[in-house]
Amino acid sequence: MLRFFSVLSLPVLISTQAFAQKLSIKNEVLQPLSSATIVVLSDSTVYTSNPEGEAQLNLSQTEEVSVSYVGYESKRIRVSPNDDQLVILSASSQQLNEVMVEGFQSNSRLNKQAGSIAKLSPSSLYRFDESSLVNAVSAIPGVRFEQRAAASYRVSIRGSSIRSPFGVRNVKVYWNGIPFTEPGGNTFLNSLDLSNTSQLEIIKGPGASIYGAGNGGVIKIKSTDLSSLSNASQLQFSVGSFGLLRLSGKHNVLNNNSSLTLKWASQESDGYREHNAMDRKTVELDALFFPDNKRTISASVLYSDLFYEIPGGLNPDQRAINPRQPRPRSIERNSSVSNELFLLKLGQEYQINDTWTNTTNLSLSTRDFENPFILDYKRDNQQVFALRTAFEKQFSIGGKPANWTYGIEYQKSFFDGKNFGNVNGVSDTIRFADEIESVQSIVFANLNYDLSDDLSITAGLSRNFLEYDIERTIDKINNSPQGFVKDFDAVWTPRLALSKQINSKLSAHFSVMGGFSPPTTTEVRTNEGSLNRALQAEKGVNYEFNFRGATFNNKLSFDLALFHFRLKDAITTFTNGDGVVLFRNAGETRQNGVELSTQINWLEDEIGAVKSLQTRLSYTYHDFSFENYTTGGDDFSGNPLPGTSPHVANIQTDLSFDNGLYLNLTYHYSDPIALNDENTFFSRAYNLVNLRAGYHGKIGGNSFELFTGIDNLFDVSYSLGNDLNAFGRRYYQPAASINYYFGIKLKLNH
Length: 750
What we know:
The chain is mainly beta. It has 5 helices and 44 strands.
């Protein structure tokens, strides 16, 4: 029996019986898919699945067959009588506009959806140094992934990091279908290793009509790629400059009724700067169960133990003398982070009947966080419960197809935080302690309707509720324990979009969507002990045009976005005289932008010496500025937003040969970036070149890969993850100089 599912991408399950093999093909919600093609390579016999997704193979011996489906990469497998095999076909990425995305609705091709949506496949994630996501994510136009220390991440989507001196805020992150961003608005993305990320999708701009708070956008992560791992084990070892050592392993067992995947990873490094070491260990277990043709049950268990040192920001003079030095007192105070996470996720996809489906996911997590810093010493503990369920109905209006989705998302967290004095890196007398209960709920609905064969309309609406109940249990600063409830008014966020298929190769889209982003608990409960009661939520409206298409016989594909975003009560940072980062509402911002992605397939030849040659070009133009921003007698109206670069370009060229050799070349350019609201300091413009080369080989029925790479090939001096509005001009977090890595992967097929 050969069954095709599309749970994470498109699985293909083959169960052979003597002389006859039955094939069954299904999509992501386990509905039949017809017209999959199976070719027996020895005699070119062709089989095709029927409308029910089934086909019958008649084989008398072990044969090599090619399995293909439109929009997915074909794969060759060996089929033996009485064997059960599960083969996964991954979605093809030969054309940008044809990429399958989830976006604001069920899986569909990008040219069918309005709004800026980008997707990184496993091949995109693994073409760089695999110790972080920085280079892969930063190749997306409008997105900037920063790494201030060895594992201190910050993500900016269309300027959303202005309020993030550290960590990931103003962006909603999902992992395996459940919110990874806790209801207090903080996301510890650095708890995840690359092995916990096989596919990454980014929605740029407000996604509140479906996903709630976060004007910056939405990041959706799927952790396991069965297309490269089904019934196989993979081991990886790599070493690199500045003490990098990475070990990881993956193991999958797949059969007719279930899939079980175990992954582990260990990564450590000394870091480019002094006092910049990191050590992260992760273990993940993923399970899929197929009890019947209508139901898929999923479960994930994730454990992450992360430690990293914080070298701190430097002022211009310190950077000029020695960019590798830490901020004074960082070593003495043991400035660092320890972050331990345990997460359990359960889910189900259920085909209720021919028109209704339901997807439900829930999770429980607990986190222990410890952060000695120059100014204090923090110990936090948090438990989070999350639930998301969505019902989807396929129907018709006036004979035209329509899709209706509605659901709820609910999160509740219990946070226990204590701040101590820091004496030589050891916690001293407690200064204050808080217990915070955060509750977030979203009710959402989305309707997509085809007005005609080439014109569709989408309308979405959500109601968002958020409450922080803060109780100060200890207050040694003011000797007056207190508490208050910060209840944000319920927010209705709409979205309206039109999509027009101009011809078979070109589509145009328009969307207008509202968004909001309340202050996080970290912004309300500040490190110096105050409770910022006055801080208000940001609210904005985004207007966007998208054009997608392909030309020159599909050799060139493109995705162009033009947007205008206005934000009220924008939250920005400032630093007091003690160097503590605080937050305030900064009036309005005006954000105009152009973002372009192109892909050129110069050559595709399965039998030639040169197998493929491909180039991707992305370009970003952002004109972001303050409006009506006056504070302390200073008027910053008209100033460019700090943390955003007007012009950014990224070029990737990939060359692969029939003998297994490959070469990946990347060029990245960034304009200078304003570092403070006053625009008196800017970072340098920089040009980066990264290179990776490798060889894919086989040993018997197993395969291996040898790879080596050079990052920052021309040894450019630049800062990655600048500290905005920093006290004492400590804006700069110098990035690594030229560095090297080498590794090997071994894949053993069961």
